[in-house]
Inverse folding.
């Protein structure tokens, strides 16, 4: 991978700035400047609504969890193939505001643009565009447009549009639109999918304007879900609200509603339009309540006003950065990359307990908006230490979809337990190609892992009793059923025909990662049941009844834990990825033309790919990172040396993991190289596909690369450990984490690692064999390095 790619945007640690508007950069920049609060997502498109074609732009507005379904067309469907698709639906657009400046329509493609900048202010959570526009008649206007998707108000986004005539006085006319003639760009954003959604998918139930407001309600054709949206407006001359009865003129067509208003502006006078936008759906309330909810939300937002919402946004962001920020001294480009990544993860994750996190967040249509294991293995671990409440809400989403997972397990022939879908929005399996989808059973163990990590780091025993235990038991049950004690493997427990994380080795027997994670899932299942027996028998009784579960089942779980099979290569003393891995043909990259190398599935038959001994992404190595306490450093080093030769890193989920493991075994320089590739991967668009949306997993992986990699932090068996190191390129770095209610700051320089309690009571951790306990705020420990 190219690490020398030139930065696309100027290096500014807290900002991302576009200095010039260019059509050819538009599609990518729409993702860079996408805003979201985990519920509403909106792409960084312009208020002027330029007519971009399918290759240069995509207007996109999404609501987490709101999807459209179509009947999936299969050439050859097998039993259990999902019949209905789920695609995050592109919803009506309300950002459009066209402005006539004394009779001339503002467009950056007419007249001339000076002093242009569009900046994502990551510290404040605001997107701001500034420019001076000279019309063809020579009228100069200063324009400043700010936009935010509110973290304080889940359903609200706001645009503040300010114009100041610089060398003329005249009429300023705003035409603020609600555009419902929208559709997904499936052919472009999900090219391998042949079922859509194509065309307009929302059937309009109502579209109307009234005074300063517009309102729309529509129901999807396939999933039969109803959504509603609307806008409210206020205009100011200077700081004075323009309060004229006849200010707004509404017009509605079949697919759109436009509100227009005209005000006189004197030279040098600023006219401001504040546009408040609200989205909601029937996933949150009965259909009959949608309209009154939208109206009330808009009234409340108007009442609060833009300045107040902006202030609340800042406050929210301050509290986020207070815990989540990672400071790097000595490399501003990487610092900017880290901020960008953390900012987008914050935006991506659902925070209402009913929604998850798409692999692309809410920044685009890529992967149909589906939630994968990316959430649990990459993003959730970051949130566990920085925003535990948000981590819990993502786990709630999985808890809330247990019923669908139970049904899925039955389809797969498991009489008990739950099998989570490989990709989904509504909790049902949406993967249409089972070798790369449903066969990734490891999703069950990944969810159980994330849950166990949450419980260890927060000590939230109530959550275990209320919801967690049920997830652990139900996932464990599937592991206890999927395999067998195979005679040909000395009676060891084998799991056949699964796909591990690595998507180039498919339907394999005894995938090392899967067997390891399954074993740990079962182990946690056993421990949980024993814990409940002792400490919460009433909870266990409830689960026994609810799940038709008997404690005796854990006898089999224990036997599997003790007898799990792992493929092992005696000669190399490594764990091959699966039973057949060492038999596969060595990969010869020179035979693959460079332009096809990163796109194997697009250019080669799956069987050609699967018969080679190479790997798309971190697989066995990931298991060793997560459970490093179960392996010796020497063992990890041997495996790392082997896998780094055969891994192509064709998935964005790979390099960050290799970087962490490299640090674990003392290959700090290599760890740093991997880290540098991950840290600016999206910001510099290494994969040339950023237009389709962010790579949320890798973004979170860069936080892990610093904290778990360079600082060597792990929480295993309820013990917090560090093994601090610093890349030679840096002067110092620091981060904070929440552990059992205590906020700890870790600052690492070339000479020492300093651990300080910022908030909370006490904390214990280990560095090598040293046990350290800090007591009370301000207490600190310094370790020489
Ligand atoms: C990766 C998966 C990942 C998915 C979504 C695929 O290319 O191989 O591991 O879950 O992308 O990010």
């Amino acid at each position: 991978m190219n690490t020398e790619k030139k930065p696309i945007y100027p290096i500014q640690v807290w900002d991302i700035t576009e200095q010039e508007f260019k059509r050819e950069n538009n599609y990518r920049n729409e993702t860079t400047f996408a805003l979201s609060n985990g519920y509403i997502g909106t792409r960084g498109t312009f208020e002027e609504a330029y007519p971009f074609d399918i290759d240069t732009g995509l207007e996109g507005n999404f609501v987490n969890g709101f999807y459209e379904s179509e009947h999936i067309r299969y050439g050859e469907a097998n039993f259990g193939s999902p019949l209905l698709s789920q695609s995050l639906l592109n919803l009506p657009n309300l950002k459009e505001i066209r402005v006539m400046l004394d009779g001339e329509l503002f467009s950056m493609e007419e007249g001339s643009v000076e002093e242009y900048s569009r900046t994502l202010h990551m510290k404040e959570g605001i997107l701001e565009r500034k420019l001076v526009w000279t019309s063809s008649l020579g009228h100069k206007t200063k324009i400043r447009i700010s936009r935010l998707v509110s973290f304080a108000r889940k359903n609200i986004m706001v645009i503040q549009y300010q114009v100041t005539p610089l060398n003329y006085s005249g009429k300023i006319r705003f035409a603020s639109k609600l555009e419902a003639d929208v559709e997904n760009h499936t052919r472009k954003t999900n090219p391998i999918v042949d079922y859509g959604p194509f065309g307009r998918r929302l059937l309009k139930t109502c579209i109307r304007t009234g005074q300063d407001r517009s309102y729309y309600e529509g129901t999807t054709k396939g999933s039969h879900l109803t959504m509603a949206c609307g806008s409210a407006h206020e205009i100011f001359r200077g700081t004075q609200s323009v309060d004229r009865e006849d200010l707004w003129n509404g017009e509605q067509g079949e697919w759109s509603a436009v509100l227009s208003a005209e005000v006189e502006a004197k030279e040098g006078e600023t006219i401001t339009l504040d546009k408040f936008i609200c989205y909601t759906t029937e996933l949150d309330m009965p259909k009959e309540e949608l309209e009154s909810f939208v109206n009330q939300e808009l009234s409340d937002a108007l009442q609060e006003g833009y300045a107040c919402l902006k202030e609340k946004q800042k406050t929210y962001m301050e509290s986020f950065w207070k815990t989540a920020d990672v400071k790097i001294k000595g490399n501003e480009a990487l610092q900017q990359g880290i901020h960008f990544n953390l900012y987008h993860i914050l935006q991506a994750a659902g925070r209402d307990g009913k929604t998850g996190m798409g692999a692309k967040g809410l920044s685009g249509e890529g992967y149909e908006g589906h939630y994968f294991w990316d959430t649990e293995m990459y993003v959730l671990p970051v949130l566990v230490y920085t925003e535990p409440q948000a981590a819990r809400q993502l786990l709630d989403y999985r808890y809330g979809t247990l019923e669908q997972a139970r049904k899925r397990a039955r389809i797969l022939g498991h009489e008990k337990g739950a099998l989570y879908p490989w990709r989904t929005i509504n909790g049902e399996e949406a993967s249409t190609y089972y070798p790369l989808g449903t066969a990734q059973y490891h999703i069950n163990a990944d969810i159980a892992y994330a849950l166990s990590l949450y419980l260890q780091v927060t000590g939230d025993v109530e959550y275990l009793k209320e919801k967690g235990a049920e997830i652990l038991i139900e996932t464990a049950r599937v592991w206890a059923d999927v395999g067998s004690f195979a005679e040909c493997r000395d009676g060891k427990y084998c799991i056949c025909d699964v796909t591990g994380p690595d998507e180039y080795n498919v339907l394999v027997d005894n995938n090392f990662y899967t067997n390891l994670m399954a074993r740990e899932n079962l182990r946690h299942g056993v421990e949980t049941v024993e814990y409940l027996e002792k400490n919460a028998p009433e909870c266990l009784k409830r689960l026994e009844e609810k799940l038709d579960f008997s404690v005796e089942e854990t006898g089999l779980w224990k036997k599997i834990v003790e007898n799990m099979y792992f493929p092992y290569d005696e000669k190399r003393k490594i764990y091959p990825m699966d039973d057949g891995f060492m038999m596969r043909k060595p990969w010869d990259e020179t035979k693959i033309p460079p332009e096809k190398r990163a796109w194997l599935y697009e250019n080669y038959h799956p069987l050609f790919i699967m018969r080679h001994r190479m790997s798309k992404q971190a697989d066995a190595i990931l298991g060793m990172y997560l459970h490093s306490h179960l392996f010796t450093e020497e063992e990890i080093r041997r495996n790392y040396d082997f896998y780094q030769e055969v891994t192509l890193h064709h998935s964005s989920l790979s390099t960050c993991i290799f970087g962490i493991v490299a640090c674990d075994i003392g290959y700090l320089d290599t760890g740093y190289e991997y880290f540098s590739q991950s840290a600016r991967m999206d910001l510099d668009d290494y994969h040339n596909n950023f237009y389709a949306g962010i790579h949320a997993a890798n973004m979170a992986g860069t936080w892990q690369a610093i904290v778990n990699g360079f600082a060597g932090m792990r929480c295993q068996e309820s013990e917090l450990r560090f093994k601090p190191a610093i890349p030679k390129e840096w002067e110092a770095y620091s981060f904070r984490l929440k552990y059992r209610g205590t906020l700890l700051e870790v600052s690492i320089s070339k000479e020492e690692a300093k651990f300080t309690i910022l908030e909370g009571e006490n904390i214990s951790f280990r560095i090598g064999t040293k046990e350290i306990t800090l007591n009370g705020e301000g207490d600190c420990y310094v370790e020489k390095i």
User: Anything to note?
Assistant: The domain at 387-567 is CATH 1.50.10.10 (Glycosyltransferase).
